[in-house]
Design a protein that fits this description.
- α2 crosses α4 and α5 runs antiparallel to α6.
- The chain is mostly helical.
- β1 and β2 form a beta hairpin.
- It has a 3-stranded antiparallel β-sheet, with no helix packed on it.
- The chain has 2 domains: 61 residues, no CATH class; 94 residues, Lysozyme.
- Helices cover 61% and strands 8% of the residues.
Length: 160
């Protein structure tokens, strides 16, 4: 595996036998073996919330760049889930209304979105007025308040 050193400000005195990049790659290879990978948050042997290859979430957390990378991946996944599970109900919509469904799927998962049976039925009929009302007539809307109002308005008007 070839890992690029992502931090442009990173400096290290190279070993006479290895370049900085080779040194980092060797360290990563060993750390991957030692730490193992866990895709879900867990508590390490010291009781610290950890994820991935030993990322200490309590002390290090995530950088904005890392969070944006995850957000992009999750957004693309939400789009794929909408395409897969909603089919033409999704693909035949204008971009703004597609965005509404993607954001709902991102927020509550595709199965949460699929629970909006009346809303989806109105969308299928291109009755966006009633679809937007149904969005607000939900436990989700009570939980996310302003977000639900904004997305409902986007569904009703088709305007971003």
């Amino acid at each position: 595996m070839d890992f690029a050193v992502r931090n442009a400000e990173f400096e290290m005195t190279p070993s006479p036998k290895m370049s900085v990049s080779e040194f980092v790659q060797k360290c990563i290879g060993k750390l991957m073996i030692h730490e193992g990978f866990r895709g879900k948050v867990y508590r390490c042997s010291a009781g610290i919330l950890t994820v991935g290859y030993g990322r200490n979430l309590e002390d290090r957390g995530l950088s904005k760049e890392e969070s944006l990378y995850l957000l992009e991946n999750d957004t693309v996944d939400s789009i794929k889930q909408c395409e897969k599970h909603l089919g033409t109900v999704y693909t035949e919509l204008d971009d703004v209304r597609k965005m509404v469904l993607v954001m709902m799927a991102f927020n509550m998962g595709i199965h949460g979105l699929l629970g909006f049976k009346k809303t989806l039925s109105f969308i299928r009929q291109k009755d966006f007025e009633n679809a937007s009302k149904e969005m607000l007539n939900s436990r989700w809307a009570a939980q996310v308040k302003g977000r639900a109002k904004e997305l409902s308005e986007m569904m009703r008007t088709g305007v971003l």
